[in-house]
Amino acid sequence: MLSVARARDKRHLVARAAIGYNGLNATEDGMVSVRVDGGVALNCAVDDFLWPWDRATLPVVMMHGYARNATFWNRWVPPIAATHRVYRPELRGCGGSDVPPPGFHCDAGDVVRDIVTVLDALELPRVHWIGESSGGLIGLALALAHPERIASLALCNAPTRIPDTIRKIYSLDRESAAAAIRAHGVGHWCRETLGYRLDVTHAAPELCEWYVAEMDKTRPDVAAALMECFEAVDLMPQLGQVRAPVLLLSGDQSQIASEHQAAFAKTLPDGRVKSFAGYGHGVNLLQPEACAVAVLEFWGTLPRA
């Protein structure tokens, strides 16, 4: 097992990436990428503002939501990175990661294996996980499969499964959400369903347009495959097995996540809820600093890992 002391600072990682050590590669924008199964390279932003010798705090992984990318965490980085090294990986076909070949399909187990490969390459044996929406589902699946790797989970807008009512809405005029995405493209689909992922009553028009444009960067066949992957996930029966402490962040008006928060809290061995009154989905973008502060306070209540 990797030792906690081996978590590397960014300068060290970039130097190793330059020589291809441990599956790492350097990207043109100064980030790193990791080769996973099939030779696909997953991009990972590294936010490191600590002294090279500072190992006092556990590193943090921030996992983006469905068909999104690492930039959705930009407003979280300053408060979190003041005391922790932050790693923001991107799934296959998302952000700066390689686009998989046509015919791509995956399940939750495939996604978890990719993330474990990234953690190993970055020499991160144990992390605090922050996940938004499906990024929260990935964190829960990782905590169940590899509990030794996850010190805590902060889940923002995360359900245990996508509700049937939302699946129907996401399908638009097709038999499934994946079919709608393949037929209409990601940008059109995102715009038609945006109010269920982002509370547009609180979001500036510029944020809404940026959100659609960023999701539209994900190729439709990749987005459809990821939708099928996450629609197949239902972690409610396994929540009682999650050993890591969990903080649940959600707007109390979210049509995807809010109905699951009480069940989360009752079922998890150590589940805590931070609710944002009057907000729907997307508090990670609408209240980023407040969410980050809540996460830092949550970590402050945990035994030093």
Task: Please explain how this structure is put together.
With 305 residues, this protein is α/β, with parallel strands linked by helices. The protein has a single domain, classed as Rossmann fold (3-Layer(aba) Sandwich), CATH 3.40.50. It has helices at 10-18, 77-81, 108-121, 134-145, 164-170, 177-184, 186-193, 205-215, 220-231, 258-267, 283-286, 288-300, and strands at residues 24-26, 32-35, 41-47, 60-63, 86-89, 127-132, 150-156, 246-251, 271-276. It has a nine-stranded mixed sheet, sandwiched between helices. A hairpin with a 5-residue loop joins strand 2 and strand 3. Helix 3 (108-121) packs across helix 4, helix 6 crosses helix 7 and helix 6 (177-184) runs antiparallel to helix 9 (220-231). It is globular and about 55 Å long. It starts with 9 loop residues before the first helix and ends in a 5-residue tail after the last helix.
In a few lines, what is going on in this structure?
This protein is α/β, with parallel strands linked by helices and 305 residues long.
Features:
Rossmann fold, nine-stranded mixed beta sheet, alpha/beta, disordered N terminus
Q: Which secondary structure elements does this structure contain, and how are they paired or packed?
A:
Blueprint: H1 10-18, E1 24-26, E2 32-35, E3 41-47, E4 60-63, H2 77-81, E5 86-89, H3 108-121, E6 127-132, H4 134-145, E7 150-156, H5 164-170, H6 177-184, H7 186-193, H8 205-215, H9 220-231, E8 246-251, H10 258-267, E9 271-276, H11 283-286, H12 288-300
Parallel strand pairs: 4-5, 4-6, 6-7, 7-8, 8-9
Antiparallel strand pairs: 1-2, 2-3, 3-5
Helix pairs in contact: 3-4, 6-7, 6-9
